[in-house]
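User: Can you predict the 3D structure of Secreted protein? Sequence below.
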Amino acid sequence: MRTRTKLTTVLASGTLAAGLLVGGASSASAGTAQTCYGGAVDFSTTNKVWPAYPQWRTTSARCADVNVKATVGAYVQACFYQGAGEPHKCYAKRWLSQGVWDTAVTDVLNGKKFYLKFDRSTWGKVAY
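Assistant: Sure. Here are the predicted structure tokens for Secreted protein:
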């Protein structure tokens, strides 16, 4: 009987520890997203481009991706500066659902100049 009690205690402790590990990972992800989205700025498109030409925005350590929360559903394409005289590198178009955070491009390096092209006029928030 005593062995069964100890085994139950050990199993319960292991389950609790596993739950804490999983919960810790979720908290870290939520904290990262909160930091990224907490630095979001308002945007509105001029000629379906943000920021307006000839301006650029620069990626930061705050976000691993370029994230957009648009007021209307739209396709977005992120384009990056490659150097003087070089063509811009534009990634595949991605669909942005209305009113939710979506990624325009993932796994971006810090300090890279970029702009966003949309298939229609829109506005909302962008975190980068």
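The beta strands are 41-44, 49-50, 57-58, 66-70, 74-80, 89-90, 94-96, 101-105, 113-118, 123-127. The first helix runs from residue 2 to 38.
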